Amino acid sequence: MVPLTRVAVITGANKGIGYFIALQLAVSGLFTDVIIGCRDSSRGAIASEEIQQKISIGSSSSTKMHSLPLIIGNVQSHTDFCERLEQEFGSASVLVNNAGFAYKGSDPTPFNEQTKKTFETNYYGLVDFTEKMIPLLKKGKDPRIVNVASMAGKLKQLSSELQTKYTDEQLTIEQLNSLMKSFEKDVHDGVHRQNGWSSSNYGMSKLGVIAATKVFAREEPSISVNSCCPGYCDTDMTSNMGRRSPDDGAKNAVIPATMKNPPTGEHFADFDVSTW
Ligand SMILES: NC(=O)c1ccc[n+]([C@@H]2O[C@H](COP(=O)([O-])OP(=O)(O)OC[C@H]3O[C@@H](n4cnc5c(N)ncnc54)[C@H](OP(=O)(O)O)[C@@H]3O)[C@@H](O)[C@H]2O)c1
Question: What's the number of domains the chain is made of?
Answer without folding.
Answer: 1
